[in-house]
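Example with several molecule types.
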Amino acid sequence: MATVTIRNVWKYYGQTPAVKDLNVTCPDGSFVSILGPSGCGKSSTMRMIAGLEHISAGDILFDSQRINDLAPKDRDVAMVFENYALYPHKTVFENIANPLRLRGTSDATIKERVTGAARLLEIAHLLERRPHELSGGQKQRVAIGRAIVREPKLFLFDEPIAHLDAKLRAHMRGEIKHLQRNLGTTMIYVTHDQLEALSMADFIAVMHDGELQQWGTPSEIFNKPVNAWVAGFVGEPAMNFLTCDLKRRGDDVVLSHRNFDIPLLPGQVRQLNGAAQAGVARMGVRPDAMTVSMTRPSEAAIEGEIFVNELLGGDMLVEVQLADSRIRVKTTPEFEGKPGETCYLTVNRDKWHVFDAGDGHAYF
Amino acid sequence: MTETLTGIDMSVRTPEDRFRARKVSTEVEARPLSAALPPPGRLNPAARKAYYFYLMAPAIALLAFISLYPFFWLIVMAFQKGDMGAVEWVGFKNFTDLASDDRFLSGWVLLFRYSTMCLFLQVSIGVLLAVVVNGSRYERFLVTALLMPMMMAPAVAGLLWLFLYNGTFGWYHWIFHSLGLLGSGSILSSAKTAMYAIVLVDVWQWTPLITLIALAGLKRVPRDQIEANMVDGASPFRNFFAIVLPNLYPVLLIAVLLRFMDNFRFIDHILVLTGGGPANATKILPVYLFEVAFKFFDLGRGAAIALVLLVVTIILGKILVGVFDRPTAGGR
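Resulting structure tokens for the full complex:
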């Protein structure tokens, strides 16, 4: 159990920076997810914490101890690898026992701990098998077993369930979260799947191009993205973006587009802070922050033409063609519009976002 | 492209790679296979099987001429007595005589001593060198430099070392003599040191082969297993024995097999350096075989020795494959 502090950390591969001035503090016992697309520096960050990668600049601390110069074996972390990295020539039992064996634990304790871990992960019947005789999900459990068999300061999970099929992945999400809660050990979990991060983590660190974009709870990340990139990366189906003009009309500020003119809420005008009261901005609306109807509900509704309907089981996704772009809106399967017909969109203004057209930071 | 397609998960490391691999395979799946390929069987008519035999016939004939014929003739010779002229059948006498031949028996002992020393030194030094060279900044240069002894004809290497060991002007002679490790004689003329001298030459010339093979093996040791073991708490030293070495077994098997069989066959060094002396101290079995067959021209006896040597080589090879195969059986 430890608080992990990453302070001004840089990682260079040759001349290319992979992680740029990263500052993150993972509270003791928390489940922290590092989220980002491939090449964003999240795996490099994890490998620096594990000691598998040299830290180019900055410090990493476990509690108050600087661990930059410690060998991996002295850092007391346990890691689960993306490809499981099981030892093919050892049985499942010996795979799980490996960290204990390397620390010279007595045979009796090893047997007790390994069987305990195996029972917890429901792989007790597989202990005599070898890795090549296991399915993907079983291999993954063995890899987790190897991590939890001793009590490390920190768990590092590097996309551990990326290779499982969708159903098993959903199942393992719950299991891993439950396991972490029970053990109470700090966990850093790297993933490129925003759903995994949102559903499991206490805190999410969103990374892009080696830079930390946003740190926050899943709901903060989802509801209050700090910039257009985070807003677009998190959430499925993805947020709609429309380039609009900001116009002053009396006391109001209006978001103006070829298809609509919608005034901002009074509080939101204040949040603009005078910065972009006139000029170009990007509006961002999640598909579930809008409603679609076949009759005009109000003057402020956006008129468009249905491009295509996608039924997603319990939901229906309607793609609507506006003058210069398409936006997607979530509705119920009972929606009766047909492609080619005219429909009307109503935006929930409490849940929309306006981003700077230049650097993309969020006004609200 | 084929590599990405058939590549196992191990080779797919980053998420981008995975994406790429998936993309490539989708393209291939999308190709209209059934339309593009002729119906199965049309290219492979059973009626024309003889055709394949005709195609292979020249190769088979050549093989029979240069390899099979001498082999069968060797078996025939092993049951005959006589030199170039008169020949008589003697049954198993050539073989039974070997049992009471001291030189034959000591030849075996010397051969095993020689081969064991060579293998032990070559494998341990070879693997050590491979580990040192692997990932070094000067890897390419070092590999080229290491390969040089291997490129030399064995007889030439033997001559080179003959000069180095020479009792009048040999460099090694001078060093060992200065260090007081040598008595009054020269290295090759002392029964105590001659064997070590020829082992050293073999090690010098053939360790690079082991290094090369081990280096290729090291390249495919899965990095994530090494890293997992490091995080589990292993020191680099334990890591080597727990992960790297087991993964090297299959390639080391090939290396050991090659070298052990070569040790049973190649006598160029020994013929050049000592010719089996002094006082038969380096007369390992193949040297004795050479002597019997081509110096004394006792061809029947020579053929019998050769057959025994061949059978033992095959049996030992089989055992070796069995021993090495076990730890990784079904491992991948």
